Amino acid sequence: MSHESLSTLWTATANHLWQSTLFAGLAALVALALRKNQARVRYQLWLAASLKFLIPFSLLIRLGSHLAPYRSAETRPVFYFVIQTVSQPFTHTPSLKEWLTASLLPWLPGILVSLWLCGFVTVIALTWLRWRRVTAAMRTALPLSHGREVDALRHLESIAGLRRPVAFCMSPSSLEPGIFGIMRPVLLWPAAISQHLQDAHLEAILAHEVWHVRRRDNLAAAAHMVVEALFWFHPLVWWLGARLIEERERACDEEVLRLGNPPQIYAESILKTCEFCMGSPLACVSGVTGADLKQRIVRIMTPEATMKLTPIRKIFLGAMAIGVLAGPILVGLVKAPLVNAQSPQAGAASRPTTSYWLAPQDQIYHVGGEVSAPKLIFAADPEYTEKARKAKYQGVCVVALIVDEQGNPQRVQIVRHLGMGLDKKAVDAVRQYRFKPATLRGKPVPVEVNIEVNFRIY
Asked: What is the CATH number of domain 114-304?
């Protein structure tokens, strides 16, 4: 991967991370305000915060820019020169610290990508090992079409309004009862636990699992597992995972109690499951013993009346959801023609600095004092790439170069990347430029200059 690509990826990732972190913080504040409401409302907030990590705002802004009216693309070079207070030949010998920094800096993106890849592979490997435990139990399970467990399951499915019956499989393993699969969910039931459960306990556990299916909790958990694999380095992602499990279990507990199951019976059924079974190794295999068991039992035994969302709060949440989705699109619509459009002075004020490691005999001057600025006598027009033209992409690319004694550009390189293939187009164009050389006391000298190449859509 080229340095340009890594730089662009680094900037985009950093922007996406702080935006997603800010969104999660906002979701946390709203969840705190809704702590007296139903758990499913807070669960949806945490799920939205998790999915935000998969949807960069830049994509929505790009969508808005695509919806903007088409205008012709033009390019325009703007020149500015680095002016030093004292104009002296550049003969600085770098210190050891500067040399190490300059030597290691080009390797930093590759090191970061390698570390991310190691973490990504580790998370995937651990997930695969846990998945094997569940699939091993599924391979030894036998489908069951009748019995008190199946009869109770079908009755609860009709109450919950499930359109498709859940397959029931009896397993000799000790894994807790859990829902396996997303599109065609299967209830994996440990054979050894049935003899320890009365009918009331059995119905309470099955009701919990049926609501996992009704709420599509496995799908949401699988989506968050993708987030954890991609952003394993972000502590907030793992915190969101814990909140998702906590609120989904609490939401199912609320539904089980709403169906009229006695709190004591329901709490006993969970404890019996913990006594005779092992917990589910994966969040996307929804069981009955997830989250903080002590807190769940306390909430079940001391149920508090949960408030439904008031019309004002529903309007507020709806407006917030619309704003999050529509806001970036509107920004793309309104700001697309102005993206990175700035005056040469503004570009000079924000330009990055560039340094060159030169041999002692090289003398590179800077414009200022007795050193006159080179004058452009020929400028080749940079071309738009087809990808950038279709995307209506625009902005400013800054190119650093040395104008030698003959007025030719040397050591042309990018110091502010633009992407979309426009960096290469800018460099190719600048290499064709010709200058009247800079002079020092009437003698041509090489000088370091920066050039802004504006890619604009008019």
From this structure: 3.30.2010.10
